[in-house]
Amino acid sequence: MRFSQRIGKKDVRQVLQTDSIDQILENKLWNNILNDFINKIEDHAYSYQKSKRAEVFIYIWENFFELKSDEIPSYTDGDVYTEGMTEYIKKWFLNAEWYEKYDLIEFLSDLSNPLRLDFTTKVNYTLKRELAGYTIIQNKIIQITAEQEISAIENALKNGSKYKSVETHLSQALEHLSNRENPDYRNSIKESISAVEAYCAILTNDSKSTLGKALNQIEKTHKIHTALKSSFSALYGYTSDSGGIRHSLLEDDINVEIEDAKFMLVSCSAFINYLKSKE
């Protein structure tokens, strides 16, 4: 792991990929296209009929790329040169803008249904694993990471030296969430809630205060709505009770997923920003 990754210096927008596709995600999406779509389609021609792959390539050439049918990579006898077409798609994909790459993924997802391929399932796994801000639902690319969520994390990370501990916890939460080699969603959640705890301890000038105690004090001095305080106390309880994240790191009674860690990071960041506005 690189030094910048170990200390948590990752750009939020690079981690939660909403307006870009990094090299690793690009590579894996191409592997999906090649291994889970192209190579799954039979490429053997029978008598004078074109192979199924050739037929699919013609459809892609004419309906996605919208190019002249007589200009598709072909042999001298007119048969589709499928290897050449694969290279054409690869070159186009690697040079396309990030949103154009998703155009192709969406097109192939729709095409994979009649071909009975599990392409969409494999792509969704890649998107989830690489923290892309999108998923495929009913063959359409849908954004699942909102701009407000990213902004909440970015703003929460912008603190002065007084709140360095808060920034450290949030950076570590982001690092645990985005570690491709060994993602640690449990510790990501712990760091997210610890960031709130650290912020509240500084706000109340009580370094030994628990979050529950600090919230009671802040409710009185900073006019936090009771329902909001209760909601966050409940989230804190989720991580701290006898079956919570902090008490069961070595047990399997709680199945912590990427969605849980992301939700806690966004929620804790938003709550820190809310407390900032009350100072």
TrEMBL record:
InterPro entries: AbiJ_NTD4 (IPR049503). It comes from the Bacteria. Pfam families: AbiJ_NTD4 (PF18863). Residues 1-159 form the HEPN AbiJ-N-terminal domain. This is HEPN AbiJ-N-terminal domain-containing protein. The lineage of its organism: Bacteria, Pseudomonadati, Bacteroidota, Bacteroidia, Bacteroidales.
